DNA sequence: CTACAACCTGTAGTAACTACAGGTTCAAGA
DNA sequence: TCTTGAACCTGTAGTTACTACAGGTTGTAG
């Protein structure tokens, strides 16, 4: 209604974040408590919208909500830039580990799939391999 | 007590699977219901132990419990070898996608971390980048 | 026979949402 | 002004794959 105030539905549309997720973020205290209309509907302004987008970007980069919480405190100037760098470097490390692990998995699965010779025998060589390996 | 019957604790030790996890697998029907001692303690034999190890190997390869359930039905000769191959190939595909996504993340995070010049300014360039990107 | 380790059941918690049910408010058209 | 229905509200339960209790029972070694 008034300038720059949007409902949760519009916020959801403009950010691509589910309404339930927005309410969930508020509940766990990662999004600020918004103003309400006379009837009790949530009304958001630019600040909250930016924060929501920030959260989503972080989530897409693989940060946990707990890490996002810390990053937000940095944005609110409660922590130093150092903290951000540390969190990010940890994140990079864990991503590299995950990539390595996934590559190993891939290799093993390709090996296993190769043993599957697509016949309709009652015994499957891949299953047998898994039972023994 | 009798030959080859072991308690849940021993099964847990020999497989490295948590006692609670073993009971959980039974509850969701992925492990068969074991015999019980007179007093009601679970007693496992070789068959169940092998099945548990199989489940764990599959989990380590990134299969979901639902997929493991299907693989087990194959082991029990209810489905053909084809099914196994299909599940495995899907698994390989999804792993490759995950690897690609993680590589992108890694790249972006390294870029962001580079903007962090580790000074104690109140404004952090990485956070600013995240708020705008 | 007594300790006490190992087991039992059942419930609740974890992460990060999603999906209802059952009720209220808002806004546009008649 | 009234009505209708979309959009909103709260609160609870479900998802995946476990893990962690609490409070009680059984097994076994000394």
UniProtKB/TrEMBL annotation, chains A, B:
Pfam family, one: MerR_1
Chain coiled-coil ranges: 85-122
InterPro entries (alphabetical): DNA-bd_dom_put_sf (IPR009061), MerR-type_HTH_dom (IPR000551), MerR_fam (IPR047057)
Keyword entries, A-Z: Coiled coil, DNA-binding
Boundaries of every HTH merR-type domain copy: 5-74
Domain of life: Bacteria
Transmembrane intervals: none
PANTHER family per the UniProt record, alphabetical: HTH-TYPE TRANSCRIPTIONAL REGULATOR ZNTR, REDOX-CYCLING DRUG-SENSING TRANSCRIPTIONAL ACTIVATOR SOXR
UniProt-recorded name of the protein: Helix-turn-helix domain-containing protein
Species of the source: Hyphococcus lacteus
